[in-house]
Design brief:
- By secondary structure, the chain is of the alpha+beta class.
- The chain folds into 3 domains: 4-86, DNA-3-methyladenine glycosylase AlkA, N-terminal domain (TATA-Binding Protein, 2-Layer Sandwich), CATH 3.30.310.20; 87-107 and 235-293, Endonuclease Iii, domain 2 (Orthogonal Bundle), CATH 1.10.1670; 119-150 and 160-231, Hypothetical protein, domain 2 (Endonuclease III, domain 1), CATH 1.10.340.30.
- It is 47% helix and 12% strand.
- It has helices at residues 14-22, 71-81, 91-97, 99-107, 119-128, 134-148, 165-168, 178-192, 198-203, 206-213, 221-231, 243-252, 260-268, 274-287, and strands at 4-6, 36-42, 49-57, 60-66, 151-154, 157-160.
- It has a 4-stranded antiparallel beta sheet with strand order 1-4-3-2, covered by helices on one side.
- The chain is globular and about 50 Å long.
């Protein structure tokens, strides 16, 4: 259990990430101590399940791995989950240019997007959540994990992971309705043959990645953006199908019924961190409404 050390480039706060997860229904995270974070997930590639304890220490992020998963693969996945794989030194300049973003950066210091544990898990969430309330989807996802997911002991804390693709194939209609079950089974094939690999998706042009994701059964434009931005961790795309973000923009920028071109023009000022700024706006909105998603 040799600790892995990750060094953030630019401001980062693990406590801010933990607070975010506590309000992010898809994660199913139950807060323990905000000075460290416990995760369990199938590792992209061989899909072995890993448990991880993440702490912040002297400006670095230290991750201790539990289980038999490849440590370097875990390092990469933890970095992507916490957006530590992106150089954030230029994010403050976005706030200097845009007073709304600057105000939110001061309100949520060190907050970066916290991603789904994998693009595969993000896609599974998208399928489960179709036409269902977020709280119901979270409960269904938790039932799936409890039925067929692996349990990892993270220094005395038992953490249940969402099942790896090969395990998800064991799912029955007793947990998930028939049509969604069929979609999930097809999703497992895409995960096992590498089509949902986060690094692969990030290596494609955004248009190509979104197009390929929409070829998966049950994945439309909104879900494709979710998988790419919050699953694979693309840091710089403006979600054109996320209505709650657009509502937040209208509220915070004092716009009445803004057009898509107006919103796109505002978001262009957030480059190269359009996803990061979008998350700040969503968090601000959800703080006054319901848990972030």
């Amino acid at each position: 259990m040799k600790p892995l050390v990750l060094t953030p480039r630019g401001p980062f706060s693990l406590a801010a990430s933990t607070r975010f997860l506590e309000g992010f229904a898809p994660s199913g995270y139950r807060g323990r101590d905000r000075d460290h974070l416990h995760l369990a997930f199938p590792v992209e590639g061989d899909w072995a399940t890993a448990g991880v304890c993440v702490r912040e220490r002297d400006g670095s992020v230290v991750a201790t791995v539990y289980g038999d998963a490849d440590a370097e693969a875990v390092r990469g996945q933890v970095a992507r989950i916490l957006s530590l794989d992106v150089d954030g030194t230029g994010f403050a300049a976005v706030g200097d240019r845009d007073p709304v973003v600057g105000r939110l950066q001061r309100r949520y210091p060190g907050l970066r997007p916290v991603c789904f544990w994998s693009a595969y898990e993000a896609a599974a969430w998208a399928l489960l959540s179709h036409r269902v309330r977020m709280t119901q989807t979270a409960a269904m996802k938790q039932r799936i994990a409890e039925r067929i997911g692996r349990i990892v002991d993270v220094h005395g804390d038992t953490v249940t992971a969402f099942p790896a693709p090969q395990q998800l194939r064991e799912l029955t209609e007793a947990v998930v309705p028939g049509r969604k079950l069929g979609y999930l089974r097809q999703l497992t094939g895409a995960a096992l043959d590498g089509r949902l690999d986060s690094a692969r998706l990030r290596s494609l042009s955004r248009d190509e990645a979104l197009s390929q994701l929409q070829q998966l059964p049950g994945i439309g434009p909104f879900s494709a953006e979710l998988v790419l931005l919050r699953g694979a961790g693309d840091p710089d795309h403006f979600p054109t199908h996320e209505r709650r973000l657009h509502h937040a923009m209208a509220e915070l920028y004092g716009l009445s019924d803004p057009t898509s071109s107006q919103l796109t023009e505002i978001a262009d000022g957030w480059r190269p961190y359009r996803t990061w700024a979008s998350v700040l706006l969503r968090v601000s909105l959800e703080d006054t409404t319901q848990p972030a998603g």
